[in-house]
Amino acid sequence: ESMSDISVSNMICNSQTAVTVNGYLQNSAFTNVINRNPDCAVIQVTRPGGFKNVALNGIVTVGKEILQEKY
């Protein structure tokens, strides 16, 4: 359950979470992501060490967190 070299850009989200990383994500990038839900983080990581070498650029949220680690 691992992914690498993923690029996500120009995404607008209103759902419970914009991005959920259930496995492992590395060597990837998120660019120009807008979260319109004030009750959630933009990116939720569900495994310890599940988010490595990931660039975040142009992330906008009305919530409190961009990245939330929830195990």
What does this structure look like?
- The chain has no helices and seven strands.
- The chain is an all-beta fold and 71 residues long.
- The mean pLDDT is 94.
How do the helices and strands line up, and which of them pair or pack?
Blueprint: E1 2-4, E2 7-13, E3 19-21, E4 24-35, E5 43-45, E6 51-61, E7 67-69
Parallel strand pairs: 1-4, 2-4, 3-5, 4-6, 5-7
In short:
This protein is mainly β and 71 residues long. 0% of the residues lie in helices and 59% in strands.
Number of helices: 0
Instruction: Return the average pLDDT rounded to an integer.
Output: 94
User: pLDDT below 50 for ≥5 consecutive residues: which ranges?
Assistant: none
H/E element string? EEEEEEE
Fraction of helical residues: under 10%
First CA to last CA: what distance? 16 Å
Task: Label this structure with key terms.
globular; four-stranded parallel β-sheet; 59% strand; mainly beta
